[in-house]
Amino acid sequence: MTPETHLVEWKESWRDDYLRWLCGFANADGGTLVIGRNDKGVPIGAADAERLLVDLPNKIRDTLGIIPPVRAVEAEGRMLVEIEVEPSPTPISYRGEYHFRSGSTEQHLTGNALSAFLLHKLGRHWDNAPVPGVGIRDLSSIAFKRFKEHARSGDRLPPRALSASRAELVERLRLTEAGMLKRAALLLFHEDPERWFTGADVKIGMFRSESDLAFHDEVHGDLFTQMEQTVELLRTKYMVAWISYEGLQRLETFPIPREALREAVLNALIHKDYSSGTPIQIRVYRNKLRIWNPGELPPTWTADKLLQPHDSRPPNPDVANTFFRAGLIEAWGRGYEKIRDACHEAGAPAPEVEFDGGVRLLWQWRIPDDTVSSSPVESPVESPVESPVESQVLAALCAGPLGKTELARALGRNRPSGQLHEAVRRLVQRGAITPTIPEKPNSRLQKYRLTTAGKRLRRT
Fold this sequence. Notes:
Blueprint: E1 8-11, H1 19-27, E2 31-35, H2 49-64, E3 70-75, E4 78-85, E5 93-94, E6 97-102, E7 105-109, H3 111-121, E8 130-131, H4 141-154, H5 159-162, H6 166-172, E9 176-177, E10 180-182, H7 183-189, E11 202-209, E12 212-219, H8 223-238, E13 242-246, E14 249-253, H9 258-271, E15 280-284, E16 288-293, H10 317-325, H11 335-346, E17 352-355, E18 359-364, E19 372-373, H12 388-397, H13 404-410, H14 418-429, E20 433-435, E21 448-450, H15 452-459
Parallel strand pairs: 1-2, 11-15
Antiparallel strand pairs: 2-4, 3-4, 5-6, 6-7, 8-10, 9-10, 11-12, 13-14, 13-19, 15-16, 16-18, 17-18, 20-21
């Protein structure tokens, strides 16, 4: 006897309402509805089996528009009726409603779930829909530069592609359709994708307890910027470092290795449901870190399966492909395996995975008794910098060295202002940032990078 699964459902008798179950099977992976078994799978026989064999094919055809096989089978001397439904390549509705088989339950699809389902059935994904009114010139030169820097070491694009124009590169990455940029292009390369997609950002909070927020940050911009700034903020401002000594050498140990943290942030950015209008949320505590990503798992998957070998099914394949071409991810569904392996290599605890209206990755650790903790919770919330522009400059430089023109764009300005020049001058004087070409302070190639003192300033 085949047990109840996402492919099998038992019913003691027929009710027309069960057409919803057949609709759910057709919209998922197919399945079989068995009439005449109770909830324990015991065959009790289908009442009026002969009538059902005549009535059901017409009723299913007229209501759902499909013609599945309806046949009589015998089990333990009882007559059962089996309706075997094949997966449909097109969406099937039941009286204007769409249903979907998930696990051993029947789900009524509405809202974002329905939109995602219809797009998938039509061979589309949310991120490959075109957006009118936006052109190549509207995209961020900084984002293209970051992509190319990663792609050069990733070796997944020929050198000529990296020297091509923005328009040619976007075409090569298949981020256009009918002459328009896709949603993925705006997420990846626009400096403010939130103009189109509410919640396309990352929120980070430092919590003393579940209800006591110490301080927080928001990370905006293209996805490459979000990736780099989120990891850098977590490492330099939020994470607890354990300080120990080997002889005279001071050692700082983080509870989560950088590679695992980076992979977790990447997974959240790539697999997020951007139609939800909800940002990625990262909650940091003294002894744990939680990354919550709004999104849905494939219908037959459980949260545990993410930490096991599995195939790659990104909900945003165009976003995933661009990160792959940049050499930042693999295309084999090994993201969570890499997180686990990086933690194992570093002797750190592996994360737990939960699913609750989204994917939640949770790290928990014990603070060693023989080390000193530099917990950011104990640092003052107020920033000692003298102006908001200085704070913005420090935040922008977390992603790497930038020139003044790039800093201006990162701060939402078209060109460097007097305020920006003054903020840079003061930060250089304080040793928070340093020029990359100190011997030529006025060079057009001059950039500025964050110093160790600047990172400490960002923590306070």
